[in-house]
Amino acid sequence: MNQVLWAQTIYIAFIIFLVYFLLLVVFYVLLAFFGFLEDKRRSQEHEGESYPLIYFSNLAIPVSIILPAHNEEEWIRESLLSLLNLNYPAFEVIVVDDGSIDKTFEILNEMLELKAVDRVYTKHYPEGKVTAIFKSDKYPNVTVMRKTSGEKKAGAVNAGLNIARHRFVCTMDSDTVLERDALLKIMAHVHRDPERIIGIGSSFGLVNGFIVKNGTIIKRDCSYRPIIAYQNLEYIRSFIGNRLAWSRFNATPIVAGGFGIWRSDILYELGGYSSDFSSEDLEFTFRGQEYMAKNKEKKYKIQMMPYYVGWTEGPSDVRSLIKQRDRWQRVVIEGVIKYKHMMCNPRYGTFAFLVFPYFVFYEVLGVFFEVSSIFLVTVGLITKMVDVKTFLLYLAFMGLVQLIITLLSLFTFIRGQRVFKMSYILYLILLSLFEFFSYRVIISIAKLCGTYHFMLNKRSYDQYTRPKRAT
């Protein structure tokens, strides 16, 4: 390739990448605007809600909470106790010990005073092999199932679904500690329109650095370790900056498995969760969106709330973070490929024209735009097709794009939430100045690894090794 052609190639590619990132900024500005409006609306509803009326009402909608656990001896006690401490009048808890080989079951037995029971039920959902069912002598609303591992989290949740008794089902992770009023806040919204709300989720942050005792958060010391703080920042962008805005258009793409509520009749019609994917939550929400489109006359809704309902443990080292995000990337690619027929298909409304293209061009292909653009301008610098000033300006522009996206999300977050101290918010803003050249590099590596592993047909539910929790 001669020098003139090479220079033209770099110039054209540079323009393409520049347009891509400018469009991304515009998209996030719009998301931030609609997210702000949605947060304002939910805040007004929250202020006018009569929570005591729901709590003391005999007509409160009961909820089945399914807590799948695989080798969760570090967190199962606190997670379960946080459920038992919930300020909600009617709920059952189904713990599914998914083939744990650590002390998970021993801890459950000690806490709950379990007794084996013979329980006949219909297997509506693929669950794997359930080996025993127990009832708690201490807590009548708690059931424990033991099953063999192998069907990923989807199989464990399906096992719980098979015996769940109530009209709404809440699924969560066993390393998550819920706020006492989490279920009350979310179900208050469901009570407004139980015939049309089929799925609903909300925000959560990282418990790393907190002191938790008996299922209650005693001290909220947010970790200032960059790897943890960056994840908190990422959660804010994801829940507040993206999903809240999409919810305004009834186009929620994912009700996170860490905390999500679905109507049981919809779970039944859709056949429960699938273990064919690396994770279950995104694929099932896509399936829910498809179901809503096929039943438009019923005006179903999948909603996202802005409340911080709980706190989950995040990866505390780079290796664990890459392992987690590798799986997340596979999940996104799997969902996009399976539901590619929804892309810009008028039948699927806003989801088809707003959300699905975002997943394709940012979540799936975005990492290639980022890596390719940096590689190209670096090669241009080395070959002297790009001068040093242009190179530095381009890097500054990339960092500025990341900063703008972060500040827009933080603005909406600060207005509606009083979760973090202002000093921590300022720290997050400071970190965002360097995010593109530090944390973003790690995430890009994880996404590339996830794409590579997807191409190798890897579909495992990889669980990173958690460090021992301080008590």
How would you describe this structure to a colleague?
This protein has 471 residues and is α/β, with parallel strands linked by helices. It has a single domain, classed as Spore Coat Polysaccharide Biosynthesis Protein SpsA, Chain A, CATH 3.90.550. Strands 3-4-5-2-1-6-11-8-12-7 form a 10-stranded mixed beta sheet, sandwiched between helices. A two-stranded antiparallel sheet has the order 9-10. A hairpin with a 2-residue loop joins strand 9 and strand 10. The longest helix is centred in the N-terminal third of the chain and has 46 residues. 45% of the residues are buried.
What does the secondary structure layout of this molecule look like, with pairings?
Blueprint: H1 3-48, H2 51-55, E1 63-69, H3 76-84, E2 91-98, H4 104-112, E3 114-116, E4 130-136, E5 142-147, H5 152-163, E6 168-172, E7 176-178, H6 182-192, E8 197-206, E9 211-213, E10 216-219, H7 226-248, E11 259-263, H8 264-269, H9 281-294, E12 301-312, H10 318-338, H11 349-364, H12 366-382, H13 388-416, H14 422-432, H15 439-455
Parallel strand pairs: 1-2, 1-6, 2-5, 8-12
Antiparallel strand pairs: 3-4, 4-5, 6-11, 7-12, 8-11, 9-10
Helix pairs in contact: 1-7, 1-12, 1-13, 7-13, 7-14, 10-11, 10-15, 12-13
